[in-house]
Amino acid sequence: MASEYDRAEKKDNPVNLGFERTRLAADRTLMAWIRTSVSMIGFGFTIYKFFQYLLETELSGRLTHNAPRNFGVVLVALGMLLLALAIVEYFLFMRKLSRDTGEKFTVSTALVAAILLSLVGILVLVNLLFNMGPI
User: Residue 11 domain-assigned?
Assistant: First the structure.
């Protein structure tokens, strides 16, 4: 049973459900962009490594040496660009939402995942461009 203090505290600090729904919708949108970026980065890296293997084993026939590398690099770079734009869009939207509602902007798990994934994407791109790293 709730005490008088608990009821008074809930009355003074009501939950703004509209803000919460909108914030969670922004998180879901960011997670969709994360999924798209991971797919592009992973697919680009896989294409690059697969054709690199074919070139090393001379099973590729008349395939030019730069075609798979360029295609893989473009996919990884596009995935990184889309993820960076999604992070910027998320920040701008959350700043506007916080300003409009007066609610405090909290860092979400989706945002942390997006930032960490962008770091992984940078490492993959460096690996593809300069053949540096353990992969």
Answer: no
For the record, the structure tokens of 113 come out as 């995942």
Q: Tokens for 107? A: 């860092």
Yes or no: say if 30 and 90 are a contact pair by the CB < 8 Å rule: yes
pTM exceeds 0.85, yes or no: no
- Write out the residue range of the structural domain in which residue 34 sits: 22-130
**Sign of the alpha-carbon dihedral angle for 37, 38, 39, 40:** positive
The answer to whether the CB of 111 falls within 8 A of the CB of 90 is yes
- For residue 98, how many other CB atoms are within 10 A of its CB? 15
Distance CA(125)–CA(77), nearest Å, equals: 7
Number of folded domains in the chain?
Answer: 1
Confidence of residue 89 (pLDDT cuts 50, 70, 90): very high
- Residue 69 belongs to a domain: yes
For residue 25 the two structure tokens come to 């919708």
- C-alpha dihedral sign at 2, 102, 110, 93: positive
Please give the Cα distance from 44 to 113 (Å, whole number): 20
Return the number of other C-beta atoms located less than 10 Å from residue 9's C-beta. Answer: 11
